[in-house]
Amino acid sequence: MAIESITGKPVTTSVPAKPGVKDAAEPKQRTESGVVTDTVEITATAQDIKTASAAGAATPVVNEDRVAAIKAAIQAGSYQVNAERVAEKMLQFDKQLPDST
């Protein structure tokens, strides 16, 4: 698609190549049948990221069994809050906050 300027004439732009930067795309290759094809190589790091992303998407964010157990304990009146653990977690969180003074 050509971009036209206000005057109606086509606008041409070119970006000079940076010295020492190799184009990541492989040059077009011809197969035995004469068809031109492009090739792309995915790095191992990119493949690892894709695998980790898929694993993360498949893992539930919330542990439904634990939530159900806590709800049942609250309804039964047997849920005990560990005040010391809550205080420790609050202090840990506070240490992670930026200093506002």
Concise overview:
This protein is mostly helical and 101 residues long. It has helices at residues 44-58, 64-76, 83-96, and strands at residues 29-30, 36-37.
Fraction in helix: 40-55%
* Poorly predicted ranges: none
**What oligomeric state best describes the polypeptide chains here?**
single chain
Overall geometric form: elongated
Strand content: under 5%
Mean pLDDT: 81
Distance between the termini: 55 Å
The counted number of beta strands is 2
How many strands, what sense, and barrel or not for the largest sheet? 2 strands, antiparallel
Radius of gyration: 29 Å
Question: Which strand order do you get reading across the main beta sheet?
Answer: 1-2
* Continuous helix count: 3
Written description of the protein model:
Helices cover 42% and strands 4% of the residues. The protein has three helices and two strands, in the order ββααα. A two-stranded antiparallel ribbon has the order 1-2. The protein has helices spanning 44-58, 64-76, 83-96, and strands spanning 29-30, 36-37.
Please tag this protein with its features.
single chain; 101 residues; mainly alpha; two-stranded antiparallel ribbon; 3 helices; 2 strands; 42% helix; 4% strand
Strands, helices and their partners?
Elements: E1 29-30, E2 36-37, H1 44-58, H2 64-76, H3 83-96
